[in-house]
Amino acid sequence: MVRAKKHLGQHFLTGPGIATQIAESITCHRHCNSVLEVGPGTGALTIPLLHRGDLDLHVVELDEESVDFLITEELLPSEKVHGVDLLRWNPDLAFPNGKHFIVAGNFPYNISSQILFQVLDWRERVPEVVGMFQKEVAERIAEGPGSRTYGILSVLLQTYYDIEYLFTVHEDAFDPPPRVKSGVIRLLRNDMIDPGCSFLHLKRVVKGAFGQRRKTLRNALTNAGFAESDIPKEFLKERAEQLSPTDFHRLAIALLPVAN
Fold this sequence. Notes:
By secondary structure, the protein is α/β, with parallel strands linked by helices. It folds into 2 domains: 12-189, Vaccinia Virus protein VP39 (Rossmann fold, 3-Layer(aba) Sandwich), CATH 3.40.50; 199-254, Helicase, Ruva Protein, domain 3 (Orthogonal Bundle). The protein is built from 10 helices and 9 strands. The chain has helices spanning 16-24, 46-52, 64-72, 112-121, 135-142, 152-160, 199-211, 217-223, 233-236, 245-254, and strands spanning 12-13, 34-38, 56-60, 81-82, 102-106, 128-134, 161-169, 174-175, 182-189. The protein has a 7-stranded mixed β-sheet with strand order 4-3-2-5-6-9-7, sandwiched between helices. Strands 1-8 form a two-stranded antiparallel sheet. Helix 3 (64-72) links the parallel strand 3 and strand 4 (81-82). Helix 1 packs across helix 2 (46-52), helix 4 (112-121) packs parallel to helix 6 (152-160) and helix 7 packs across helix 8. It is elongated, with a radius of gyration of 20 Å. The protein starts with 11 loop residues before the first strand and ends in a 6-residue tail after the last helix.
């Protein structure tokens, strides 16, 4: 076993079993076999991804020592190891001409939400995501309305993806062991192209609604700058966590600015 330092809030898998389960959870949805692994570290997940034999794998890794290790150990050719921050990376460098790609990884806990917002920006190119998150985050993403953990990412991701919580990973599977359990989820792109408004407008409405989640939508949305008269009456006394993604689409459409 190769031991690697912790970086960017990441905890490295120490045995092949969990990594193999994650790798085998990739379905190649919509016949896509190109994979971008985020934060491979010293290759615990990279190796079982390569062992599948049916994937065109690229990795994005910010830590210079891990990049050097992946190249010097010849896990991947250097042109498939991208030593850069994912949030500043252009996917055309690995997958040109708008090619689709799957996102996979043992995601760093402290930027996992940012990674998922990046996936949303790439939603027309990413048919599948398989990854490990802090258990609380994984559950929140997969949770339906009515739960106290249901939130902004739940609504936005469930608009464009069908989400399944696959399994829980205990602390002793990592080095260093985290203080929390982890969860592995799978996102498969659905057929949603246009919920009736732009993604930016939908995100603004959802963020406004959850910005004061204990308040009714009347209060939360007016505090976020929307006019009470534009909020459908059926939603005025509801709270954000009570609305399904489809309800949010209807609400967002009702709150579209009126063209002059």
